[in-house]
Amino acid sequence: METRYRRILDAVLASANRARRFVSCVGCGSQLRRGEWACIRCLETACNDYLRTPDVPEASTVRTGYDPSLFERMAAIEPTSFWFRGRNKVILSALDRWFPDARSFLEVGCGTGYVLSAIVGARRNLEAVGAELFPEGLRVARRRLKGVPLVQMDARSLNVDGAFDVVGAFDVLEHIDHDEDALRSMLKALRPGGGLVATVPQHRWLWSQADEFAGHARRYKRRELTRRMLGAGFELLWTTSFVTLLLPVVTTSRLVASQHSYSLEREFGLPRQIDWLCERTLDLERAALSRGVSVPVGGSLLVVAQRPHVAAE
After folding, report:
1. Number of structural domains found in the chain
2. Checking DSSP bridges between strand 300-306 and strand 235-242, what pairing results, if any?
3. CATH code at 86?
4. In terms of DSSP H, where are the helices of the chain?
5. What does DSSP say about strands 31-32 and 23-25: parallel, antiparallel, or unpaired?
6. Exposed, middle or buried: residue 22 (CB in 10 Å: 0-12, 13-18, 19+)?
7. Are strands 150-152 and 51-52 parallel, antiparallel or unpaired?
8. Are residues 158 and 183 in contact, defined by beta-carbon separation less than 8 angstroms?
9. Is the CB of residue 25 less than 8 Å from the CB of residue 149?
10. Residue 99 lies in domain
11. Which end of the chain is more exposed for a tag (fewer CB within 10 A), N or C?
12. Helix axes 114-122, 135-144, angle to 10 degrees
């Protein structure tokens, strides 16, 4: 961790201080008060250090639909799959287009750290923080995110009011039963005028064993997601589908896969040449999206929104 993260972590610790509670380092158990922005013991021993905010529920008691044993498997699959690489490029393109001057960023549900590591690599001056409910995910993310603060947080109660320029949630909302609570919490974490970039799986008719395996509570209709974001208090800036050109392939693949028991490795373990071709196809989509094109159908949905500068009456 570097001193430039002090302001962001102080926001976490200040929230705990207002609640007269401690923030603790799960790596070594040390309790941190406001003004103590990092655990020196963990930094010196390079153990799996991250902070735990007050009142974080045990992950096993929260309906998130995600099996924490998948983090290690996902970490191995992500770099080898066009889908994860392509999604990273779409996310980076959206950040560059809509929030080029952002200085601070919080990823909610950072999981293995695959997306956040790409963002940190592309935006060297961005003060980034990763938040995740499951400690299993944070331990995997620590291997990818050297020097980036990681915090165990519940998406529904982030406790960092007005601390960030941008919040990201990438294929997270569909795991949460009460996604409206998470959206309201993300809104509060943003400074006035700050932005949200989120991705979710789209189209209920694409529901398959893959969604059940991943623990999804839903796939979204565009109107459904935008209505919930407006209800949480966001102003919408841009919405588009992606994985559009490959939608016939995805649909066919889901139909074929329904004849067999689901396998994570089989779904994402495409032959190298096919994987390369799929990534080039997503690159074509991204080139159009980077110019502001909004596509109505696709396997995934991307939304960019903003916290209003002035609160609604």
Report:
1. 1
2. antiparallel
3. 3.40.50.150
4. 6-18, 40-45, 70-77, 82-98, 114-122, 135-144, 179-189, 209-214, 222-232, 247-257, 264-268, 272-289
5. antiparallel
6. middle
7. parallel
8. no
9. no
10. 56-306
11. C
12. 30
- Judge whether 83 lies within some domain: yes
- Give tens-digit pLDDT for 129-160: 999 988 889 889 988 988 788 888 889 988 78
- Assigned domain for 263 exists: yes
pLDDT of residue 53: 56
Sign of CA dihedral 161, 163, 169, 175: negative
The rounded distance, in Å, linking the Cα atoms of 10 and 191 is 15
The closest of 107, 228, 235 to 178, measured between CA atoms, is 228
Measured distance CA(112)–CA(68) in Å, rounded: 10
**Paired tokens of 225:** 């997601």
Q: Which residue has the tokens 């905010």?
A: 53
Please check whether residue 160 is in contact with residue 189, taking contact to mean a CB–CB distance below 8 angstroms. yes
Structure tokens at 235: 């102003």
pTM score, whole prediction: 0.85
CA distance 217 to 233: 23
